[in-house]
Amino acid sequence: MAEATEMRMAELARRSELSVPTIKYYLREGLLQQGRRTSVNQAVYDDAHLERLRLIRALTSVAGLPLSKVREVVEAVSAEPTVIDAMAVAQDVLLGDGAQAETTGTDVKTSDVLDRVIAERGWRCERTSPAYHAAVNAVDELDQEGLTVILDRLGDYAESAEQVGRIDLDTVETVEGLEVKVRGVVLGSVLRRPLLEALVLLAQQHFAQEHFAQDFTGPGASRRR
Amino acid sequence: MAEATEMRMAELARRSELSVPTIKYYLREGLLQQGRRTSVNQAVYDDAHLERLRLIRALTSVAGLPLSKVREVVEAVSAEPTVIDAMAVAQDVLLGDGAQAETTGTDVKTSDVLDRVIAERGWRCERTSPAYHAAVNAVDELDQEGLTVILDRLGDYAESAEQVGRIDLDTVETVEGLEVKVRGVVLGSVLRRPLLEALVLLAQQHFAQEHFAQDFTGPGASRRR
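^ inputs. structure came back:
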């Protein structure tokens, strides 16, 4: 992290890797806080502005979020959230509007098989949270597609998920600074997902060979025609 | 599973929950195999057709795949793949064109931190596979965004990923029938992802309270304003 110095717009653009018109757009939209005015048409910016721009850039280009979602996150950050709040914002944003909209009603859709696993693991979870709603939906979809073999192992998946969630939390704790922390939570969630799934696929590759290789005479025989 | 009986188009539509025009479109496109012709403009279909339509429906509506990808999967299934082949097809399809296109070249981008973890776990992985490429990309993105705290825990994430991959493989083994198995592998992968991530979010909720609750006087104090 660079030391706290004031900079002009051109320097801010260079260091944030964003164009001047883009930064001016974020200023007009209120996503970036105004700089300290030094004359009628000059202002200076500091590391707080740079950090905000890096958060916005990450949310738009890496997480692929629309500006309305970026605004939600930025507003949440401006309200000086705790880490719990920041994680809640990250979860809401990542799960999308669908999950949120449906949890605003008084009827919360629940799942017995999910609730049993939550109880087994002793998780304290909000039944009104988008995360719970997303889990119920995932269970429903698997059920509808007849993939009960996956639901039969829900407890095992939950055990692995618990480990992942614990590592996620550990990494959040090591990061200093609120805006950096929120950026870490949101971006970490967005970028950790494809990492975990890619690792799962690699593990599958390994186990697929172990489990199924003995069914065939060799790798060349794996395609029957 | 219903007993093997022949049926007319109307019955096929009813049981597959697809419209007759949609089924005729799949026939014209060669995604659905032709029925047994009983007269000039009549044909009968059987459970193999129904199973194929359920696979197509799952790939389009649940997995949200474009028809070109559906064709890839259907062609792979028609070639009577082994389970390893089916998983490879599922991985390719789920990882998208980007990962595939870039692995066709001779230059395979590698990652030292990833290779170290793969070696630690003793995974046998294809460096030319889309899964490996996706993992390298995920590592690169985390690195570029300065989220090294996540990369520092790569070994721990890999351990959890290994458990998930093992459960995935177990569920595949319990399913009978090739087309059903492929459908299970592809759909299972598509639908297991949101399930696992939702479970991770629930676990995060739980740990966030455990880890951070002591910093504040109570839940009501978690927002400072």
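Chain B has two domains: 1-62, 64-209. Chain B touches chain A through 86 residues (CB under 8 Å).
thumbs up if we can close this ticket
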